[in-house]
Design goal:
The protein is α/β, with parallel strands linked by helices and 236 residues long. It is built from five helices and 23 strands. 20% of the residues lie in helices and 26% in strands. The radius of gyration is 22 Å and the shape is globular.
């Protein structure tokens, strides 16, 4: 039986904890350490695994024997995650990717380094994912689409076929991109937003806040007082 390759997870927050679970229980890696920059480090260990300063990581964990996965969210439009990936590579580390065994990823899908593909994703034929792309759980990525470097796609997002997504974009839960749409880099698509036409770089789409109607559900559906009383009696 082949010995598992050692992995250092860069990060100490919730994303790093989730990465630890997936890599530990659904990959060929063994997590040897967590690492984060010293000025933001708040922990000495996570799950009994040491948290070491990123600045001196290579002194304790040889790049020849360890890979790195940068488990940082979408802070500053994914810039922090992208910067730490670049710095880890300068130190000589290879960047690992994780693809859940419970994701559907077609055999000819291409993906780059430091990708994080959770369970229940459907990634259809001829899709291309760049480096440092996160697909949280339950998304649909349509055929022939391209998601470029450093994007973060949260959950239950639909990106239809032939879409072209620029670098550093963020997609909130339940957002939708229609067929054959191009989205420029550095865009923020809030939860529930539907994109039906091309979007220029740097665009911010805020979800419309749901306004509670003045009329109640009982009034709208014409539920009378005697209906409510009869329900109460039937359940007693």
């Amino acid at each position: 039986m082949n010995e598992k390759r050692k992995l250092v997870i860069v990060g100490e927050g919730s994303v790093a904890e989730v990465a630890y679970e997936y890599f530990t229980h659904d990959s060929d890696y063994e997590v040897a350490a967590f690492s984060i920059e010293q000025h933001v480090r708040t922990k000495d260990n996570i799950f009994g695994v040491p948290v070491v300063p990123f600045e001196s990581l290579e002194d304790s964990f040889d790049p020849m024997d360890h890979d790195v996965f940068v488990a940082i969210g979408f802070i500053k439009l994914n810039r922090i995650r992208a910067r730490l990936c670049a710095e880890a590579k300068k130190k000589g580390y290879r960047l690992a990717s994780y693809i859940s065994s419970k994701a559907f990823v077609w055999h000819n899908v291409q993906h780059g380094e430091n990708c994080f593909i959770f369970e229940d994703n459907t990634v259809q034929p001829f899709v291309k994912l760049g480096n440092n792309v996160t697909l949280w759980s339950g998304n649909h990525i349509g055929h022939h689409s391209v998601i470029r470097d450093n994007c973060f796609v949260s959950s239950h997002v639909v990106i239809s076929g032939f879409a072209d997504i620029g670098e550093n974009c963020f997609f909130g839960v339940n957002s939708t991109v229609a067929h054959d749409i191009k989205i420029g880099k550095d865009c923020w698509i809030s939860p529930g937003v539907v994109i039906m036409k091309n979007v220029e770089a740097g665009s911010l789409f805020k979800a419309t806040k749901t306004k509670r109607e003045e009329i109640s559900t009982l009034q709208y559906f014409k539920v009378e007082a005697e209906d409510v009383i009869s329900e109460e009696h039937s359940s007693s």
